[in-house]
Amino acid sequence: MAGWPAVLLFAAIAGVAGLVGVWIMWRHEAWARRHTGELITFASGLLVSGSLLHLVPRAVDLTGLGPAMAWTLVFFVVVYIAENHFFPHPHARSEDELDGGHVRGHGHSGHAHESPFGMAAIFGLGLHSALDGIVVGAGFSASFITGSVIVSLVVAHKIPVGIASMGVLYHGGLPRRKAATYSSAVALLTPLTVIISYAVLRDATPTVLGALVAAAGGTFLYVGAADLLPEGQASGLKRNTLAFLLGIAVMVVALALVPH
Predict the structure, then answer these.
(1) Residue 54, Cα to own-chain centre: how many angstroms?
(2) Stretch 61-68: mean pLDDT, rounded?
(3) How confident is the model at residue 94 (pLDDT cuts 50, 70, 90)?
(4) Residues 6 or more apart from 241 whose CB is under 8 A from it?
(5) In the predicted structure, residue 93 carries a pLDDT above the cut 60
(6) DSSP assignment letter at 111
(7) Residues 134-171: pLDDT tens digits?
(8) pLDDT above 60: residue 96
(9) What is the arithmetic mean of pLDDT over 75-91?
(10) Rg over CA atoms, the chain
(11) Residue pLDDT, tens place only, 4-49
């Protein structure tokens, strides 16, 4: 189990990652849109490999093979249902799609009112950020290494998701400043829930921690394989495939260098 100083440090890092994505979209929108594909596929490689190589095996160690795989599957399905039927998940869009009105809807300059899609996306992103914080707290309750792996996965997808959420909310009808404010508030939910979940879970049983680590594995596996990878590969650029493979390689090397 990690101590409070490490938990607070990594909680802050997770929060800053989301704010970095918002800042990049605010200050360097053109650059962000050109390179979001590489950022997304790199994050996908980290999430998929981290889930399969560390989180799911760690959950097996804590709670047994059957329960660990069951919880992984349950949360994979839960995230799928939530994103596809209740809370839309913002995706990065090309400039052509934005100009074509599919996302903007109200016109780039109008931003007359907050669209139902935008508000539902904010709520969905808030739940996603809270879940990120819970699994980080659970990971550090299980072990410092598990917590560190989960933080790295959270950081990896927070930056491209921050870019995408800021862009979609802005172009979907919210004023630019309000889109940045909402996206920043969503990002800061993660460190808050890290602190709360660690305080609650640091004395939890291995069975409970195993279920939560498996939940993290299922959640990140879905986000990496079903959300980020298809989105990043939509442009079909070879460098996106290289970014995906680089994400896997970075995770493999990182796990090989740290003691388990």
Answers:
(1) 17
(2) 95
(3) very low
(4) 41, 233
(5) no
(6) -
(7) 999 999 999 899 999 999 999 888 888 777 777 777 76
(8) no
(9) 81
(10) 18
(11) 898 999 999 999 988 998 898 888 888 887 887 888 898 899 999 9
Of 35, 73, 28, nearest in space to 51 by CA: 73
Contact indicator for 94, 151 with CB cutoff of 8 Å: no
Closest CA to 67 of 235, 208, 243: 208
Range list of H helices, 101-205: 116-142, 144-171, 176-201
Q: What span, in angstroms and rounded, lies between the C-alpha atoms of 173 and 21?
A: 19
Whether residue 90 contacts residue 169, with contact meaning beta carbons closer than 8 Å, is answered with yes
Q: Which amino acid belongs to residue 175?
A: P
Helices (H) and strands (E) in the chain, counts: 11, 0
Residue 195 backbone dihedrals phi, psi, to 5 degrees: -65, -45
Nearest of 216, 240, 70 to residue 154 by alpha carbon? 216
pLDDT(119) > 60: yes
Interatomic CA distance for residues 186 and 172, integer angstroms: 17
Report CA-CA distances (Å) from 65 to 57, 61, 214.
Answer: 8, 8, 10
